[in-house]
Design a protein that fits this description.
The structure holds two protein chains of two kinds. Chain A is an alpha/beta fold. Chain A has two domains: about 240 residues, Rossmann fold (3-Layer(aba) Sandwich); about 30 residues, no CATH class. Chain A has ten helices and 13 strands. In chain A, the strands form three sheets. A six-stranded mixed sheet of chain A has the order 6-7-8-3-9-10, with helices on both faces. A four-stranded antiparallel sheet of chain A has the order 2-1-4-5, covered by helices on one side. In chain A, strands 11-12-13 form a three-stranded antiparallel sheet, with no helix packed on it. The radius of gyration of chain A is 20 Å and the shape is globular. By secondary structure, chain B is mainly alpha-helical. Chain B has a single domain, classed as Orthogonal Bundle (MetI-like fold), CATH 1.10.3720.10. The longest helix of chain B has about 35 residues. The radius of gyration of chain B is 22 Å and the shape is elongated. Chain B starts with a helix and ends with a helix. The chains are: A alpha/beta, B mainly alpha. Chains A and B meet through helix 2, helix 4 and helix 6 of A and helix 6, helix 7, helix 10 and helix 11 of B. Chain A: Belongs to the ABC transporter superfamily.
Chain lengths: ~270, ~230
């Protein structure tokens, strides 16, 4: 379990990125931090592995304040996946996946053997192991990034807009893949995105943030749709318009669900 | 041409002497400039000062530096060590800006991601920043190689033997072929060292080789995969 207690981050120039945040991130679930740019979601994520240190409050992992843990050691125990994969361009795919185990001092042979298994896990062909990242497609690179994040079998996986830079088709594929993986592995995933659809698809808990690092609502997608905390949330999730504002009409005795524009979204199962 | 055939031994020997002067200076310039370049990259405020001071070194006339150095080092004017130090200073002046640029060229995302997965500061320097700065560092090194090999000839004027001795001797004795031999041998040496450095770069940085030679194939493959 990850817990934010009254966490604030003010940068030296005075900007407040995160303001007095309290959240509990439950174990073995996916929590998605969603908001527009400048809402402090990435800053919040980076406080978990001490890429950013808060200026006020505490971040606790299983009851331990991360400020008391050596940052390098802490990071080696937490999976991290970022946009544009963040792979090391000068290391082969296999070495990229094995990065953290090698840093931890595992033998090269063991680390490589495990890395090959991880390529299977994320649905990549083992023949890609000897390629350099630049020789892969964007989607493949992102899968390698996920494999690297899983390499030390961490309890916590931090994902910073990991699918932000790939095209929509590949993104949809990667999202499904993540859902499958999460079903198998049950990690504590903290996922940052600005895409509310992605947040609702992946999140067990969705945390909606607004400008200045304030949390508007933290709840399950269904609850957010049913009871948006305020007009900002209602507007952000689009509860009152488009494809989320569904209503039922009757067509030849069957109940058809249509969206705000009158487009058919499906049939109500009775 | 007669002069050349009867003095092949001398030319060969001077080439070795010339190598012994320039190679240490080239290596030292590289080794000294990398940390300075890294400092200039890492601490923005130091950049202007460091790069200006190092750049100014190049403005000192070479003969003046050769003659003035013994006062600081306590070595004799004709000591080869003196010349190596002077050549190193010029080498640093040439390469230090490129060194700073080399570290700037490493993408911020990659540095951050290395930190995020648990590289220590030192581990990140040796394992990520230095190798990724490699291609730009190499381009700087190539300039230093050529300039050092050429500048080393000036040592002949103060009596440190090198291929430059062929110029001074040729001028004094009016042997044109000796001067030409000196020039050609210097160029051959510079080009040879340059080729060696490129080869070494390809060996040490295999990822740059693959990326460029497979570039076209890659793009085609990527397009295929992403449209599939």
């Amino acid at each position: 379990m990850i817990e934010f207690r009254g966490v604030t981050k003010q940068f030296p120039d005075g900007t407040i990125a995160v303001h007095d945040v309290d959240i509990v991130i439950p174990p073995r679930k996916t929590t998605v931090l969603v908001g527009s740019s400048g809402s402090g979601k990435t800053t919040l994520l980076r406080m978990i592995n001490r890429m950013v240190d808060p200026t006020g409050g505490q971040v606790l992992i299983d009851g331990t304040d991360v400020a008391t843990v050596d940052p390098v050691k802490l990071r080696r125990g937490i999976g991290y996946v970022m946009q544009n994969s963040g792979l090391l361009p000068h290391r082969k795919v296999i070495d990229n996946v094995a990065t953290v185990p090698l840093l931890r001092g595992e033998s090269r042979r063991a680390a490589h053997a495990h890395a090959l298994e991880l390529l299977d896990t994320v649905g990549l062909d083992r023949s890609l192991a000897d390629r350099y990242p630049a020789q892969l497609s964007g989607g493949q690179q992102q899968r390698v990034g996920v494999a690297r994040g899983l390499a030390v079998d961490p309890n916590i996986l931090l994902m910073d807009e990991p699918f932000g830079a790939v095209d929509p088709i590949v993104r949809a594929e990667l999202q499904q893949e993540l859902l499958r993986l999460q079903g198998e592995l049950g990690k504590t995933v903290v996922f940052v995105t600005h895409d509310i659809d992605e947040a609702f698809l992946l999140g067990d808990q969705v945390v909606i943030m607004q400008q200045g690092g304030l949390i508007s609502q933290a709840a399950s997608p269904a609850e957010i749709l049913a009871h948006p905390a305020d007009s900002f949330v209602a507007d952000f999730v689009g509860a009152d318009r488009g494809k989320r504002a569904l209503h039922v009409t009757e067509v030849d005795g069957r109940r058809v669900v249509v969206d705000a524009d009158g487009r058919a979204a499906g049939v109500l199962a009775s | 041409m007669n002069w050349l055939w009867s003095n092949l031994d001398l030319v060969g020997e001077l080439m070795l002497v010339h190598l012994a002067l320039s190679v240490p200076a080239i290596i030292l310039s590289f080794v000294v400039s990398v940390p300075i370049g890294w400092l200039a990259h890492r601490y923005r405020w130091s950049r202007g000062v460091l790069l200006s001071i190092c750049g100014l070194l190049y403005a000192i006339p070479s003969l003046a530096l050769f003659i003035a150095l013994p006062a600081f080092t306590g070595l004799s004017l004709r000591s080869p060590v003196n010349l190596v130090i002077a050549l190193t200073l010029y080498g640093v002046a040439v390469i230090v800006r490129t060194s700073a640029d080399a570290f700037d060229s490493v993408e911020r995302d990659i540095r951050q991601s290395a930190t995020a997965v648990g590289y220590s500061a030192a581990g990140r320097f040796w394992g990520v920043e230095l190798p990724l700065a490699g291609p730009v560092l190499l381009s700087g090194l190539r300039v230093v190689i050529v300039s050092t090999v050429s500048l080393a000839t000036v040592g002949a004027v103060i009596g440190v033997p090198s291929l430059g001795s062929l110029f001074t001797d040729g001028f004094q004795r009016g042997i044109q072929i000796e001067i030409i031999t000196g020039i050609v041998a210097t160029i051959v040496l510079a080009l040879g060292l340059d080729a060696l450095s490129v080869l070494l770069g390809r060996l040490l940085m295999p990822w740059t080789r693959r990326a460029s030679s497979n570039g076209r194939v890659l793009t085609a493959r990527r397009v295929r995969e992403e449209t599939a």
